[in-house]
Amino acid sequence: LWDIKHQIEPAIRAGSIVLLDRYFISTSAYQAADTNETQKIMQDYLGDTRILRPDLVIYLNLPVATALRRLSGRGARDVFETEARLAGIASRYAAAMGYIQKTAPTI
């Protein structure tokens, strides 16, 4: 909510285009324990009138195997960068996107 009030809304009012690589959809994928919880988080966000809905969502669905192959060239990995966690996150992203398409098809 702080970001919306202090950064996103002022930029929109100024006529800027706002691009985000993380927003409530990411939160629902990373914070949830399973896809049911993902849907609950999505319900909470989309039901909150203070949350700005994006005009456009671009969903890039990278296969887990490809992500792991790309990560192998790096040194240390983040805690989320294991096959099991990436698969869970991918599943929760898919659930979030499905929820958006079902409940807010104009996004």
Description:
57% of the residues lie in helices and 0% in strands. It has 107 residues and is mainly α. It is globular, with a radius of gyration of 15 Å. The chain starts with a helix and ends with a helix. The model has no long low-confidence stretch (mean pLDDT 91).
**Which secondary-structure class do the elements indicate?**
mainly alpha
Number of helices: 5
Number of strands: 0
- Which word captures the global form? globular
**What sequence of helices (H) and strands (E) makes up the elements?**
HHHHH
Name its key features.
single chain; 107 residues; mainly alpha; 5 helices
Summary of the model, kept short:
With 107 residues, the chain is mainly alpha-helical.
Topology summary:
Blueprint: H1 2-13, H2 24-31, H3 35-46, H4 64-71, H5 83-103
Helix pairs in contact: 2-3, 2-5, 3-5, 4-5
